Amino acid sequence: MLEIMERMKSGEIDPPPIAKLIGFDIVEVEKGRAVVKLDAGARHWNPMGTVHGGVFVDVADAAMGIAFASTLEAGEAFTTVELKINYLRPVKEGTLIASGEVVHRGQTLGLVEAVVVDAEGRMLAKVSSTCMILRGEKANGRSI
Questions:
Q1: Long-range contacts for 3-7 (Cβ within 8 Å, ≥24 apart)?
Q2: What mean pLDDT comes out for the span 73-89?
Q3: Could you tell me what percent of the chain has a pLDDT over 70?
Q4: Rounded to two decimals, what is the model's pTM?
Q5: How far apart are the C-alpha atoms of 89 and 115, rounded to whole Å?
Q6: Tell me, what's the pLDDT at 144?
Q7: What is the mean pLDDT of residues 96-107?
Q8: What is the end-to-end Cα distance of the chain in Å, rounded?
Q9: How many Cα neighbours within 13 Å face the side chain of 39?
Q10: Distance between CA 102 and CA 66 in Å, rounded?
Q11: How far apart are CA 22 and CA 7, in angstroms?
Q12: Domains plus CATH for the chain?
């Protein structure tokens, strides 16, 4: 899976459709770690004129998902079974950088964490996710 993630980062293969819809790019990927970047602006606003919380979730979930996917072996897939986010600072516009890292990768479950920061390195959100590894028939049809 790591090779596929690296090919997405390089532009050799298309990123997932959500990346195009939201507008984020894969900046870094290595086994167990990934960084995603989004230039946020008015198109990402909620009714209060700040970046919608779901956008924070999307970039963090992407960074965590890419990081976790990079640890998968042939025949494995995964699904997120839990996600928690703490919003720390609102943003009107600017660069959001989500760094995801696998904290624990067991046989069945994994724990992944991410931080979302702005271009100055100020923490905007802290996120964690529990992932379940799928194999065999449960992994069928779930390709990256």
A1: 4/69, 4/144, 5/29, 5/34, 5/66, 5/69, 5/70, 5/144
A2: 95
A3: 98
A4: 0.91
A5: 12
A6: 57
A7: 98
A8: 8
A9: 0
A10: 10
A11: 20
A12: 2-139 (3.10.129.10)
Determine the Cα–Cα distance for residues 100 and 111; give it in Å rounded to an integer: 11
Mean pLDDT of the chain: 93
- ∠ CA 23-24-29 to the nearest 5 degrees? 160
Under the banding of pLDDT at 50, 70 and 90, the label for residue 1 is confident
One-letter-per-residue 3-state SS of the chain = CHHHHHHHHHCCCCCCHHHHHHCEEEEEEECCEEEEEEEECHHHECCCCCECHHHHHHHHHHHHHHHHHCCCCCCEEEEEEEEEEEECCCCCCEEEEEEEEEEEECCCEEEEEEEEECCCCCEEEEEEEEEEEEEHHHHCCCCC
Give the pLDDT band of residue 7 (cuts 50, 70, 90). confident
